[in-house]
Specification:
Blueprint lengths: L2 H16 L3 H13 L16 H10 L14 E2 L2 E2 L15 H16 L11 H17 L4 H17 L5 H19 L7 H7 L6 H14 L9 H15 L5 H7 L1 H13 L11 H12 L4 H8 L7 H13 L2
Antiparallel strand pairs: 1-2
GO biological process, one term: cell division
Protein name: Cyclin-like domain-containing protein
Family: Belongs to the cyclin family.
Amino acid sequence: MSCRAKLIAGVGALLAAGGALAVYAVYRRKRKALSSTATAAGPCTTDPTCHRDERDQDEGGGQPKVDTGSASGHVSKGTWSWIRRDQYDGLYKGGSIAWVQTMLVRQASYARALPTPGDLGPPNCRTAVVLWMHEACRTYRLTTECLHHAVDYLDRFLLLRPDTTPFRCRVVGAAAVLVASKILDQGSAPPLDGLCKDLAGACVPGYLVRVETGLCDTLQWRLHPTLAVHWAELYLVRALDCSEQGSADRDALLDLPRFARVVYLLTKALLYTDRFRFKASVLAAATLHLVYDGQRDLLRKATGVRPVNNVATCMEWVAFLMQDS
């Protein structure tokens, strides 16, 4: 069984056992379906989610041939889409309200443990650790979703342990990457000795394991948060389901560079503690409204929010992130 097959099987078992959100399943089905199509267009340099695909191409001895007539990929303006048609047509009809409510309940249950901008201690320490975590995920070619989970673990830990020293904060960041990789990238978890070397030899593998266990215990093993990247994907799939077949709006929603832009902005937001002023669902909606500005009518239906109310402030903040992007 290949590494990718083991990954998909392992995540599938985890979702079935843990009762995780339906959007996780959509995300995994999408990655499996695009493994032989989206990667054929070459490595993506704008979206860190493509690191896994780049590694698979290297191990496979080259890129597969592009089948431009294949039904497994939708071509929009010369670029591959980020999801197949059979994965979104009618997917959320009838059940979208219930799934959104499930995600809202999950988001509310985690909200009590989410930090506010003033709760995380010295911001420079946290920013440096998040940058290190991002580099670690790139080094070991972990998915962007893995990075988002790891940063969420770190932030909630710092809220509960505000007296954490800068050294221990970095070790906790390494442990968070390790935990997230075991959950989301099974079979590709970074080696303990490798992470310890990345920490400049500041700790030994045994100590990192103890910190990893302590991190999970501190978080009460609540390791499946509802993040902005999950909301963004759910909103886009719902918008696709509301669009007309063959319309320009659908082509725009399927455009891979735009989707990569959304992921990039949400990943960049991880550096800033100001993002905790907004719920993950609101942050995702605001980002989509700015990146897909020509499809705001569809996004209003998909997200249930309007730029003129509580999302307006968040849109201004995301626009600030876009200025130097």
